Amino acid sequence: MSVPAARARLVRDWIAGDPDPASRAELEGLLARGDDDALAARFDAKLEFGTAGLRGALGAGPNRMNVAVVRAASAGLAGWLSNSGTAARGAVVGFDHRHHSDAFARDTAAVLAAAGIPVRLATRPWPTPVTAYAVRHFGAAAGVMVTASHNPAPDNGYKVYDDTGSQIVPPVDAAIARGIDEAGPASAIPHAPDSDLIEPIGDEAVEAYLAVATTAVADGPRRLRVVYTPVHGVGLDVLDALFVRVGFERPIVVKEQSSPDPDFPTAPFPNPEEPGVLDLALDLASRERADLVLANDPDADRLSVAVPTAHGWRVLTGDEVGALLGAHRLDTTSGDDRVVARSVVSSRLLDRVADAADVPCRATLTGFKWISRAGDRDGRRLVFGYEEALGYAVVPAVRDKDGITAALAVADLAARGSLTDRLDALADLHGLHLTSQWSMRFADMAGARAFTARLRATPPTRLADTGVARLVDYSSGVGDLPATDLLDFELTDRSRVLVRPSGTEPKVKCYFEVVGARGDEAAARRRLGELREALQRTAGTMPE
After folding, report:
1. pLDDT for res 544
2. I want to staple 172 with a disulfide (CB 3.0 to 4.6 A). Which of 4, 23, 168, 523 is the partner?
3. Residues near 195 by beta carbon (within 8 Å), at least 6 away in sequence
4. What per-residue string of b and e applies to 516-528 under the rule 16 or more CB within 10 Å gives b?
């Protein structure tokens, strides 16, 4: 195999500007072997900087996470801070335990410092919510967390926060992206690793986070036997310290997954939603006769929960945990300024719970960059926010999803009584809300987008023999929400089906919700299956 001349020139130009010897050697080797497929994967596209920052596979080239890409991103961030007049307030830089996370964090700090921006740089790996809170604690203008969250081991990422401690939103992302494009070769970007503007931080940031995290619980019982797994991530030390601080026994930890390991040997896809990831924890919980299983993803911003039943362990859905925590937070907080929030694809049960408490519930676009801002427009205090993908915010001072304070809040609730009984009580009051999610894979991204375009152009009037009462099309914006490619089919029986293309993979994500009466769970589950089959027939493809 040979490499086309035009691509070879691109690769040579990149090598000339890449400051990392390992990356240069990787590309030289691919050129020498004539591996055009590998080079095309690295150079035919580039990692795009957006509101989620950067995330991708480690490796050399513009479409991979590497030193050159991180330095360019940091130059873009430095430019935005300087242009906004906030550079003097500095930045906080944290990192997790993934491959090269520490090096990428140091490079970020060095580029910012070279631009005259003070930096507080973590001295050790810590959870993502610590960085989110540290931005506010130190009064910084921005924060960076080097993490790929629950992605597989070959990936890493670069998440950016603004001075509110929330993830950035437009137009900040576009401003940083322009700075990245204007940065030039990475080797020419000023870099000052030994600058006096870089201040190491460690225990101070974690202690500040722990102090505010204790507000996730109210006075109450503390007798509870918990099994916990950090899934080879960085959550254990902070969660353990937090549980002890508020009076719980130390959790029983899954030994095989207790230590940070960037290769995730027992969980190639280290997301607690993935089949098999919780198996070790559930087995241990059975042996230990535990009351509760809690699991964080590797950077501890997500939480999975399992409870014992007469038939074995039941893993709760994100919507079930969201309803439980939302009701608990409304029960244990007060004030006319409260607000709760959920993503538009999450269950409407939280709306019913909030209505009963006479507290507004706001639906936002998917992502905590939106959820965390749900009360900003009218100065309300967000006492709870969640999205169905296991993300929860229970402490107003931490403006991002936080699997550690959510774990503490779930333990607080479980110590007061059965979580399944509480779910039944919510169903009695507000109706049984069952949700599910499936993804339909297509040959390419264009196929996925074309499917939602067809649904938009010729929407079905019935799904699973039920009329469509209303179609809400978010592509032009709904209310004060930004435009996004999302369709919400609301059916006459109060069911709904939401469809959106993935932004990163050739698939369409589909969300289903059925509302019924408690005791009708079997019928409701059949209904979920019927809606799924109806959408399959419409798509003409099989779900994953």
Report:
1. 41
2. 168
3. 110, 113, 114
4. bebebeeebeebb
Mean pLDDT of the chain: 95
Residue 435: closest CA among 527, 304, 311, 537: 527
DSSP E strands in 212-334: the ranges are 226-229, 252-253, 292-296, 303-309, 312-315
What is the second-level CATH architecture of the domain 431-539? 2-Layer Sandwich (3.30)
CA-to-CA distance for 364 and 58, rounded, in angstroms?
A: 32
Residue 247 has pLDDT above 80, yes or no: yes
Is the CB of residue 77 less than 8 Å from the CB of residue 32? no
Amino acid letter, residue 107: D
35 contacts: CB under 8 Å, gap ≥ 6: 1, 3
Reference 165, options 137, 202, 199; nearest CA is 137
Return d(Cα 490, Cα 433) in angstroms, integer: 14
- Pick the closest to residue 403 from 392, 412, 414, 387 (CA basis): 392
| Best CATH choice for the domain 219-417 from the list 3.40.120.10, 3.40.50.300, 3.90.1150.10, 3.40.50.1000 | 3.40.120.10
- Listing DSSP states for 102-126 in one string gives HHHHHHHHHHHHHTT--EEEESS--
The answer to whether residue 149 is catalytic is yes
- Among 23, 74, 101, 149, the active-site one is 149
- Mean pLDDT value of segment 164-168: 97
Instruction: Check residue 394 and report its DSSP letter.
Output: -
Comparing 186-190, 400-404, 429-433, 478-482, which segment has the lowest mean pLDDT? 478-482
Alpha-helical regions (H) of 289-363: 318-332, 349-357
Residues 6+ apart with CB under 8 A from 294: 226, 227, 228, 229, 251, 303, 304, 305, 407, 410, 411
Half-sphere exposure of 420 (CA within 13 A, CB side): 13
In the chain, residues under CATH classification 3.40.120.10 are 14-23+41-201, 219-417
304-307's contacts with Cβ under 8 Å and 24+ in sequence apart are 304/272, 304/273, 304/278, 304/390, 305/410, 305/419, 306/278, 306/281, 306/282, 307/414, 307/418, 307/419, 307/420
What is the number of helices (H) and of strands (E) in the chain?
17, 21
The upper half-sphere exposure of residue 195, i.e. CA atoms within 13 Å in the direction of its Cβ, equals 22
> Residue 271: helix, strand or coil by DSSP?
coil
Pair 284, 252: CB distance under 8 Å = yes
Nearest 5 degrees, angle CA 480-CA 486-CA 490? 90
Amino acid at site 242 = L
Q: Give CA–CA dist 22/183, Å, rounded.
A: 21
CATH T-level topology, domain 14-23+41-201: Alpha-D-Glucose-1,6-Bisphosphate; Chain A, domain 3 (3.40.120)
What six digits make up the tokens of 106? 């140091």
